[in-house]
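Tokens for chain A. Residues wanted.
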């Protein structure tokens, strides 16, 4: 099947041809006709499958075919809500590319930078707005953005929204949307909480699922090296001696870990930069730009870069530290092997990470091949567990340790008592 078979308008076909696109991916081939038919869509697809084009292309066409009937300046008619700045920028670039021969205007808004230029662009009028939840709600609260004319709403990377604690912000946005609209919901995984959220957004949707949930692309060769934690730096430097590795994306679990790896690589004469939530937006964009343009050989990142970063011809992803959430592994290695290209995903696993590796292999449904022949094999197989914190003595009058007899547990369940307090994790706000 070609894009011509999808009954796309000439400006879009011309743009796709200029971008070198000839054949739609499976999710594009299935999703585009559904969206053009004005149906709500529930899409489940792993990262790197061409999901952005699956909703951007038909939305551009629908906006072009349905002229804005609101007198005066342009109004926001399509909203794409996404969890991170990087993904928002990537989606905005895709809209610009696919719609460059149309009269539509696009704008991306996100936190971490001054809102001035974003506000100026919005005041000039836009057709499509791509936004992260925090900045969108901020601008709505200032009456700078109105969603009352939205015709098309896309919630992208819904499971990541949930992981990052944005679900309440998402619900606030949805409450401000017109009741009559077309909604598209995309997620790489479909846990029960995501299914429940989709039911509040979609109306009688059609479902598109092009790959098994949480699977890894067959184009990615995966291997694991068992290595002591203290030898990971030496192993990384040994692997990067291979000049065939022109660029590699290296993942750590923490921001401090990412900065430390960059420091070690630079000391060894290897050009590298870090990208994580503590970096300014300008620093993050500079790091990405240098990496994409092959100015920097190694980009070291936390999971902020695990989704939405489309880097052409990225041959290697290295998990310097395995993620403690198995789904993050799928998204990390999905940065390579994109659009049918091949890629290599290397994982380092120390003794304490073996449990993470088991969870990953269970999720992806296969064993990751082990590389035994390397200079730094795992020698210390002992998992060092941190000592448990001492328990606070129970609060009861008798001092027996029986919680059932304590005044705290005996408090009534109604009224403003301590037993009614609800606690929740503080959500990650680096994209607000």
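Reply:
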């Amino acid at each position: 099947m070609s894009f011509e078979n999808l009954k796309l308008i000439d400006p879009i076909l011309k743009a796709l041809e200029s971008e070198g696109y000839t054949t739609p991916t499976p999710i594009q081939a299935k999703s585009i006709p559904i969206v053009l038919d004005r149906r709500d869509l529930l899409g489940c697809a792993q990262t790197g499958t061409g999901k952005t084009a699956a909703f951007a292309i038909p939305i551009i066409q629908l906006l072009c075919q349905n002229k804005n009937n609101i007198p005066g300046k342009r109004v926001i008619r399509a909203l794409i809500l996404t969890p991170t700045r990087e993904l928002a920028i990537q989606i905005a670039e895709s809209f610009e590319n696919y719609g460059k021969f149309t009269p539509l205007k696009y704008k991306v808004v996100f936190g971490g930078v001054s809102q001035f230029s974003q506000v100026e662009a919005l005041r000039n009028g836009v057709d499509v707005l791509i936004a992260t939840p925090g900045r969108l709600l901020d601008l709505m609260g200032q009456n700078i953005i109105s969603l009352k004319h939205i015709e098309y709403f896309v919630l992208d990377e819904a499971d990541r929204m949930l992981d990052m604690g944005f679900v309440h912000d998402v619900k606030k946005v949805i409450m401000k949307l017109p009741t009559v609209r077309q909604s598209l919901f995309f997620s790489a995984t479909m846990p029960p909480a995501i299914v429940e959220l989709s039911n509040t957004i979609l109306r009688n949707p059609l479902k598109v699922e092009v790959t098994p949930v949480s699977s890894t692309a067959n184009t990615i060769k995966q291997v694991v090296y068992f290595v002591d934690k203290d030898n990971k730096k030496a192993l990384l430097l040994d692997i990067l001696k291979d000049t065939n590795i022109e660029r590699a994306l290296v993942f750590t679990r923490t921001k401090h870990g990412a900065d430390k790896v960059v420091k070690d690589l630079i000391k060894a004469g290897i050009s590298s930069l870090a990208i994580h939530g503590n970096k300014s937006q300008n620093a993050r964009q500079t790091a990405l730009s240098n990496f994409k343009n092959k100015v920097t050989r190694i980009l070291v990142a936390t999971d902020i870069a695990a989704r939405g970063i489309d880097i052409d011809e990225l041959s290697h992803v290295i998990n310097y530290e395995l993620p403690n959430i198995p789904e993050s592994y799928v998204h990390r290695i999905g940065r390579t092997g994109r659009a049918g290209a091949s890629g290599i995903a290397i994982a380092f696993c120390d003794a304490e990470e073996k449990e993470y590796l088991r969870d990953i292999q269970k999720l992806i449904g296969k064993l990751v091949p082990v590389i035994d022949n390397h200079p730094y094999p795992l020698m210390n197989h002992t998992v060092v567990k941190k000592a448990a914190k001492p328990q606070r003595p129970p609060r009861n009058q008798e001092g027996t340790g029986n919680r059932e007899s304590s005044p705290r547990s005996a408090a009534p369940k109604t009224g403003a008592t301590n037993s009614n307090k609800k606690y929740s994790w503080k959500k990650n706000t680096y994209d607000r």
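The two ends are 41 Å apart (CA to CA). The longest strand covers residues 220-226.
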